[in-house]
Amino acid sequence: MKSKFLPTIILVLVFSACTVAEPATTFATPLSEDVQSQPYLHATQTAAVEETQAAEDDSAQATPTSETSLPPEDWMEWPVVPEVTDTAREIYRKGLAMGNNTHAFSKVGDCQNVRQSFLGFFDHPGKYEGMSGIGDMQDTINNFKGYFDRDGQATQYGFNAAAVLSPLWADPDVCLPDENPLECELRITRPTFVLISLEFWFAGRTPEVYERYMRQIIEYTMAQGAVPILATKADNVEKDYSLNLTTAKLAAEYDLPLWNWWAAAQPLGDHGIDPYRDGFHISVAAWNVRSKTFLQTLDHLWKGLKDMQ
Questions:
Q1: Distances from the Cα of 308 to the Cαs of 48, 93, 211, 228, in angstroms?
Q2: Where is the signal peptide (predicted)?
Q3: Mean pLDDT on 91-117
Q4: Helix (H), strand (E) at residue 228
Q5: Rounded mean pLDDT of the chain?
Q6: What residues contact 8, with CB distance under 8 A and at least 6 apart?
Q7: Which of 17, 175, 224, 248 could form a disulfide with 75 if both were Cys (CB 3.0 to 4.6 A apart)?
Q8: What is the pLDDT at residue 68?
Q9: Per 3-state DSSP, what percentage of the chain is helix, strand, and coil (rounded to 5)?
């Protein structure tokens, strides 16, 4: 299958924030309990428990608001949990007609989105029930069972917006010839929702280049009948928040939901950033808050759309 995307760079350079790893073991269908990863390093049971619990109490207030009329330039004031947009409804309806899996979501992401530190424990009953406010979202956890503790083909250490569009990064044991990781993941999973969270800033690339790659990712995802969920990032390694602004502009232009993780991270110590590392990675105490606020987002969007079935 010949790639439908504009040519991407021949070699994707990856710097220190996300280290390169071997392609992760991937699954087109949910995993059984005995072969899933160990859940989430028990972040709420570590020394970080007090900060994590306090952050959960704050994030419990991250409920959806009425659809914001704030411009992208005011993205810091956007709610953590977005409303369902008209375009999201159209895409979801298209996905149903295409036969997409209403029990599946995919991730397009970097090292901040791997299952060991993001979402994985929601596939392990007994590991998350102590988090405040989770009970109201149990229906959503049940509906997407098997897809939380899964990375798929489009999430990997070292990925950025260019890498997911490059066939060089596709797993040849799973993907078709000339298929890039994004195409591969959406083909084998047929999700109804796709989180796009490519936070890693790679040196020498401008926000304009990031935007160009993001447009390709967004438009391909929409064409496959999957609702893109865009996301802000907690860090500001580029020094001017230009990537978050770019993401907000794209969300407004395409009328797509945006999960404002940056806003959710602000009440946390060091605003969710690990002070002992590189200014990019979030702290262990922030892991559960990040997972919970995305679950809130998925819960709100799914419940707003599922009756269309």
A1: 41, 7, 32, 17
A2: 1-21
A3: 93
A4: strand 227-231
A5: 81
A6: 162, 165, 166, 213
A7: 248
A8: 53
A9: 45, 10, 50
Give me the residue spans of the domains in the chain.
Answer: 73-308
CB under 8 A, 24+ apart: contacts of 169-172: 169/12, 171/23, 171/26
Angle between helices 86-97 and 284-305 (to 10 degrees): 70
**Tokens representing residue 209 in the block:** 């280049």
> What pLDDT digit, counting tens, does each position of 167-182 carry?
999 999 999 999 999 9
Which secondary structure element, helix H or strand E, spans residue 230, and what is its range? strand 227-231
Q: What span, in angstroms and rounded, lies between the C-alpha atoms of 73 and 242?
A: 10
User: Taking phi first (over 0 means left), then psi (-120 to 50 degrees means alpha), and beta for anything else, what does residue 104 get?
Assistant: beta
Are the beta carbons of 257 and 227 closer than 8 angstroms?
yes
Assess contact for 293 and 299: CB atoms under 8 A.
no
Which two three-digit tokens encode residue 142?
């049940």
308 close to 96: Cβ distance less than 8 angstroms: yes
Place of tokens 């306090």: 54
Torsion of CA 199, 204, 209, 210, to 10 degrees: 0
Determine phi and psi for 61, rounding to 5 degrees: -85, 0
Do residues 108 and 195 lie in contact, with contact meaning Cβ atoms separated by under 8 Å? yes
Residues 97-106, mean pLDDT to the nearest whole number: 98
Amino acid at 20: V
* pLDDT score of 296: 98
Apex CA 139: angle with CA 136 and CA 145, to 5°?
130
Query: Positive or negative, the Cα torsion across 38, 42, 43, 48?
Result: negative
pLDDT of 48 over the 90 cut: no
Instruction: Report d(CA 281, CA 260) in Å as an integer.
Output: 17
Look up residue 79 and give its amino acid: P
What is the chain's length?
A: 309
The CATH number given to 73-308 is 3.40.50.1110
Cα distance between residue 195 and residue 296, in whole Å:
13
